[in-house]
Design a protein that fits this description.
Layout lengths: L19 E9 L1 H14 L3 E7 L4 E9 H17 L5 E9 L3 H6 L6 H4 L4
Antiparallel strand pairs: 1-3, 1-4, 2-3
Helix pairs in contact: 1-2
Amino acid sequence: MFQFLSIFSIRPPEELPMPQAVGVIQTLGFPSVLAAADAMLKGGRVTLVYYDLAERGNFVVAIRGPVSEVNLSMKMGLAAVNESVMGGEIVSHYIVPNPPENVLAVLPVEYTEKVARFRT
């Protein structure tokens, strides 16, 4: 017939998984990507999951964490690049809220053993 939920069977909010996001910033020049990464990690509860040299002096940095934290951290990272006097510039940036499993399986943005101890 009807099933009634017990108040004791509902998990408290702190135990529910937070929706995750991936944020990526691509800059021209290494000092700019370093400034972005520094600001992003200090600006929110996110984990740096990817960094690499792209082409023609461009660098890419990617973070993961709760959607609200990634949004805040990305704003901080973009502001750091724009405010820096190092001559770098933002080439592109993007946030993927709630990325599908296929994206996580294909792109190098998984939480690896290397970054596991830094997860917040």
